[in-house]
Write a structure and sequence with these properties.
Blueprint: H1 2-26, E1 44-56, E2 65-79, E3 82-101, E4 105-125, E5 128-147, E6 150-172, E7 175-186, E8 190-193, E9 197-201, E10 205-217
Antiparallel strand pairs: 1-2, 1-10, 2-3, 3-4, 4-5, 5-6, 6-7, 7-10, 8-9
Length: about 220
Amino acid sequence: MKKILLTTTALIALGIAPAAAADLAARPYTKAPPMAVAINNWSGFYIGAMGGYAQENSDGLGTLSGGFAGGTAGYNWQMGNVVLGIEADAAWADVGATVGIVGLASVSDKIRDMGTVRGRVGYAFDQVLVYGTGGYAWADNRMTATLLGLSASDSHFHSGWTVGAGVEVMFAPKWSVKAEYLYRSFQGETYNFPGIVVGVASGTLNLNSVQVGVNYHF
């Protein structure tokens, strides 16, 4: 009986082995496909709208502060995760202050328009772009002096530079939102107020500003 069982088991095993080998041979080896990685493309032209708040980098009376709003246009080049770009913005502004006694003697200072032309260097984490930025800054500034009811004004275009950083998020196809901080420094100009005082040097004007915006990418 023992010999019969061993012989039967051997025959069964011999019968199964070729069938199993044939089954394995019939199944071709297929390599598992790599996991898909979503890479957002930041390259291209974009336009948008922005707004924010600026305050002069100084303490005491006569510190300029206020809001601004305007438009943005730019272009990005993406190389792997590195994004290079150039951006320009221009904004209507109401950043000002008044010093003195209104009706007796006072001086008002107001930035009416301002903007920048900047380069950007960033790193993209798919739909999130973190970047540093810097370049040229300008401001249209108007000062008004009043003395005993007599008033005179003078305006100047101030040039300067800016540097800052920001983050931008692509929240939908072709649409992104951003938030950034900019430090702006404008060179001084000389203001004249006929009939009151002439030759008033404004000195360097430095602003801290924060702004948010939304962009459409083409």
